[in-house]
Amino acid sequence: MLEHLVIKNFAIIEDIEVSFKDGMNCIVGETGAGKSIIIDALSLLKGEKSKFDKIRNGESRAFIEGSFYINDTSLINEINLEYDNLIEEDHLLHVSRTLDISNRSITRINYRNVPLSVLKKIMEQIIDIHSQHKDNSFFDERKQINFVDSYSFRLNNPEIQNINDLYCGDIQFVYSTHYNQYISEKKKLQELLDRQSSFEDLELLTYQFNELERANVQENEIEDIEIELKNLESFEELSNAMDNFESNYSQISSLMYASRKALQSLKSDLFNTESEKFNDLYYELEDLHDEVINKYNHLSNNQARLEELRERKSLLYGLRRKYGRTTSDILNYFKSIKEEIDLINNFDYIIANQKKSIEILEKELNNVAKDISQIRKITAKCLEEEINKQLHDLLLDNSDFKIEINQTELNKNGYDAIIFKLRANAGGKYLSLQSTASLGETSRINLALKTVLNALNPVGTIIFDEIDTGISGKVATKVSKKIYDISKVSQTLVITHLPQVSARGDHHYFVSKYVENNLTKTKIDELNNEEVTNNIAYMMTGEAPTSESIALAKQLIDSIK
């Protein structure tokens, strides 16, 4: 739910702040006062592209910020899981866009800079804008199948339940899992077929394999040999150091031995502990000396090893020139050519097995897709009935909504292609929604679909931008009732010029413009009950409220509520 909105230096708006409430919020005012500018600002918070031309004349920067309260815990958990705890315990989401005259844009969510794509992905679950001047997702044939699938989960239908039970309650998840595996296996097959054209000469590969197999290269062998050679080749320097070590140690050892004997000769129990410790240290030092000497002797007796290492290094360096700079590179190349040889020798068998695996998966997918299609056919009938009821409530009595299901190639949704169609007049043809609806009908069709489908997964805030244009009388009353019904599930913001719609609202905001210092500015004020009545009276007559028009307005409010 949108709780608070700040707009600064955007079009004719210099600086406004407004707090919205739950329920149906009506935004009223004269044409050109700035109502649609507020919707433009909200569309930026929803993730639309930056509108730098809307920066207020004479200003260098525009700023829009909305504070949204998210009461859907599962949505919060989903967002926090994907975006590192973006929403805190207060359930608030602060979204802002900053535009400057150098065509730079800053997007923030809860004061973190984020890409516009992230904003768009998050906000599509939080705010929905319906306008006569923009296409609606219900009219997008790519999305219509998703609405049918979502609606199926809402139905308490025994046949659908029985089918789902065969798949542990979630046939869509089972299909998706199988389909991903199917696509993966097809990709693997194509990679194998593509690889065939780039196979290297088998004779050359076999020669390289035999050469490397004979070499029997071990892990880290080149690196280990280089270290050992360095030690052996520096033996002369090491020998001089060892002579110096032995000379010094001989003197130290003699002195320590004499000291140990002197300490042991003391005839006092007072130094028994220290004498034992000194004795232990003496023997520990002797052991350490022996270890050093043994290592030295090992090196001094390994001149044959030196020659052996030099020969091995020469062999390995030859391999390195051909197959890679490090031991790891050589071993990886050895592994890769072994796999390549195996693949070449067994290619026909591998391809046959891969195709067989794909055929099995495709058969399983078709079986699941068949059951999904059956669920969709049941769902489509129920959804048709409910939407047609809504259309008739909106006085589109001659219209008939139909969901057409055609079979297509297997894809991520199964093998169904779903198209929402409408017959605008009795006896007419069923055409896609986009091609059959006039401007007024589009608004009502939209509203009928929204009334039904928003209940599946209610969005936090729905904005209706003058969708009541071109209607009046009974139709206007019906439209207002539908918007009011939706507002019980989702907060609604409604820009309207119709008294029937305004009379239904829970809260009212009046947008007006004025001139100050030769500059046009916009302001927005919340109306009290008396001001609401006076404004509805003005909507009804187009003139300043009189006692008679006010009485009519009160009568409308009482009758419509």
How is this fold's topology laid out?
Blueprint: E1 2-10, E2 13-19, E3 24-28, H1 35-46, E4 61-69, H2 73-82, E5 92-100, E6 105-109, E7 112-113, H3 116-123, E8 127-131, H4 144-154, H5 158-165, H6 171-196, H7 202-215, H8 221-233, H9 235-265, H10 272-300, H11 303-323, H12 327-345, H13 347-393, E9 400-411, E10 414-423, E11 431-432, H14 433-436, H15 439-453, E12 461-465, H16 473-487, E13 491-495, H17 499-504, E14 507-516, E15 519-526, H18 529-541, H19 547-560
Parallel strand pairs: 3-13, 3-14, 8-12, 12-13
Antiparallel strand pairs: 1-2, 1-4, 4-5, 5-6, 6-7, 9-10, 10-11, 14-15
Protein described:
- This protein is 56% helix and 18% strand.
- The chain has 19 helices and 15 strands.
- The chain has a six-stranded antiparallel β-sheet, covered by helices on one side.
- The model has no long low-confidence stretch (mean pLDDT 89).
Short synopsis of the structure:
The chain has helices at residues 35-46, 73-82, 116-123, 144-154, 158-165, 171-196, 202-215, 221-233, 235-265, 272-300, 303-323, 327-345, 347-393, 433-436, 439-453, 473-487, 499-504, 529-541, 547-560, and strands spanning 2-10, 13-19, 24-28, 61-69, 92-100, 105-109, 112-113, 127-131, 400-411, 414-423, 431-432, 461-465, 491-495, 507-516, 519-526.
